[in-house]
Amino acid sequence: MRTERDGAQHDLRHHGDAEVRDGGAGLTDLAVNVRADTPPAWLREVVAESLGGLAAYPDGRAARAAVAERHGVPAERVLLTAGAAEAFVLLARALKVRRPVVVHPQFTEPEAALRAAGHVVDRVLLRQADGFRLDPALVPQGADLVVIGNPTNPTSVLHPASVIEELARPGRVLVVDEAFMDAVPGEREALAGRTDVPGLVVLRSLTKTWGLAGLRIGYLLADPGTIAQLERAQPLWPVSTPALAATEACMSPRALAEAAHAAHRVAADRAHLVAGLREFGPDGLHVAEPAEGPFVLVRMARAAAVRRHLRDLGFAVRRGDTFPGLDEEWLRLAVRDRVTVNRFLQALDRAMALAQG
C-alpha cells in the first residue's frame, strides 16, 4: 500500500457503459454492474403509474421517510440525490475541505468530482500483494475527507466495518460508498444507519440492484448538519417524481426481501464464475479473492487484446487500467447467471488463445 500525492492521471470518467455502447447492441454485457433482468415488472409498473403526477412538482417527503425508516434513522439524516454521482458532486462542492483522500482502486467518480471542484486529491493505493485490503494507518493523519467503497468497485473487497471505523475522527468527513452493499447477503459490514461514528457519510444507490441507471436515484445518510449543508447546494427538485416513486417502492418489505434473495443468488453465481476462472490456472489468470461484490477482478497477460477478442466473440468486459492502482493487465467481470457464465468462460478460453497468437 502506498500514498500518492495528486498522482498520475487516469481516465476517471470512463465507466462500464462505454464498453457496450457504440455498436455493442449485440454484446452480452459483463461490463456494467447493474443486476441483469431489472427493473422487475412490478417496479416498472410503479414507475409507469407515477407518470400521472408529472404535472406537479416532485415532493420527496414520502420517499425520504421511507429511506429513513428502512435504515432506522430520522428523516433529517437522509438526503435524496439524482444518483450517487450527484452525491459525490455535492460533497466536493459544498464541504470546505483542505486535504481530501481517496482510497484506490475504487469507483473513480468521487475523485473526478473533487478534481472538478478544484481540489488537489491524495490517493492511498491498495496493493494486490495485500489483497487490496485497507490499513487505516496508511491514510494521512491530516486528511479531512476520506472516501472508500465497501464493497469496493472494482476489487470486490468487503472491508470490515470495524476497520473502516478506525478512519473516523473529529474534524474528518468519512465517506463510505455502499452502492453495492445490498448485493452482500445480510449486508454484513454495513455502516448505513450508524449514528455513533463521527463524520460518517454513507452513500447508497438504487441503480445496481434494481436496474434504475436511467432514472438516477440514490441517497446519502449523514448527521443533520451535513445533510442541511449539502441540501443547500442542491438545485430545487433534484429528484424526479418517477424516481421518488421508485425509491419509496424499493424500501418496502417486499422489495427488501427480493433484494435479499437476489444477494444470495448473486453470491452463488459469483462462486460459479470464480470456480470457472480458477480452472485457467495461476499462470494464465489471477482472480482477486475473496470477492464479495456482484463483480470479480482478474489479472492476465495481454488483457487488452483479450478484451478485444472477447468483444469480437460477443462479450463486453470492463477494462481495469482506468482505475488508479491498476494497469492494463486487469479486467472487471460482472456476475451473471450460470448459463451466461459458462458461455463466457468458453469465449474467454478462445480469446486468451487468440491473444497469445
From TrEMBL:
In its keyword annotation, does this UniProt entry include NADP?
no
Q: What is its EC number?
A: 2.6.1.-
GO MF annotations in UniProt: threonine-phosphate decarboxylase activity
Which residue intervals make up region (Disordered)?
1-21
Q: Which UniProt keywords apply?
A: Aminotransferase, Lyase, Pyridoxal phosphate, Transferase
Q: Which NCBIfam families match?
A: PRK07908.1
Spell out the protein name for this chain.
Aminotransferase
- The species is Streptomyces cynarae
Q: Which gene encodes it?
A: cobC
